Amino acid sequence: MRHINSSSKNLLLETDQYEQREIVMKLCKAYGFDSLAYARESLMNWEEVVSISKDPLCTIGAHTINHYALSKLSLEDAKHEIVKSHEIITGKIGVEPKHLAYPYGFFQVAASREFELAKELGFESATTTRHGVLYPEHKDHMTALPRVSLNGNHQSMRYVNTLLSGIPTRFKNRGKKLDVT
pTM for this structure? Predict the structure, then answer.
């Protein structure tokens, strides 16, 4: 996933989620950009997903259908996004996803309401994009888990051990282990 800078976050938070999609589709059409062709070239297809789902070291989780910022949707629409994703994945790979990754996942778009929703829908865990490592205290917050992002844009493999130590995120989080609000 690409890094979302503060101006992108503001745009994401200030613009209606459905309106955003309309704007993007209009821009694609105006500039002759085939978003479906781009998706076919850059994203895994279902055959590839099914193949890796058979690997015992791989677990396929749910996400959403349209990658909306869930907190900006009604509870009913947010639930639909997650449930439909769960249904499609179950149908395609024959295994129910037990884990969820929130779209975007920073605190303005994945918080208490979304954490409770993931729990109510029966997910064993759900991952935010809040930076951090797991601590024993996370056992009581399984639908608000942090992650270490290794997206290649801002990290180098030489920093992996430092990131996995938790030191950078404890520093950034002012000593707090949990960021679950």
Answer: 0.82
The answer for residues whose C-beta is within 8 angstroms of residue 96's C-beta and 6 or more apart is 86, 89, 90
Determine the average pLDDT of the residues in 157-162: 80
Q: Which CATH number fits domain 45-172: 3.40.1190.20, 3.30.930.10, 3.20.20.370, 3.40.718.10?
A: 3.20.20.370
Contacts of 40 (CB under 8 A, 6+ apart): none
Cross-strand bridge partners of residue 127: 101, 145
Q: Residues of 107-132 as b/e, b for ≥16 C-beta within 10 angstroms?
A: eebbbeebbebbbeeebebbbbbbbb
Q: How confident is the model at residue 153 (pLDDT cuts 50, 70, 90)?
A: low
Domain boundaries, the chain: 45-172
Distance CA 93, CA 47 (A): 9
Q: Do residues 162 and 88 make contact, with C-beta atoms less than 8 angstroms apart?
A: no
Q: Is the pLDDT of residue 105 over 80?
A: no
Closest CA relative to residue 81, chosen from 100, 98, 96: 100
One DSSP character per residue, 12-37 reads HHHS-HHHHHHHHHHHHHHTT--HHH
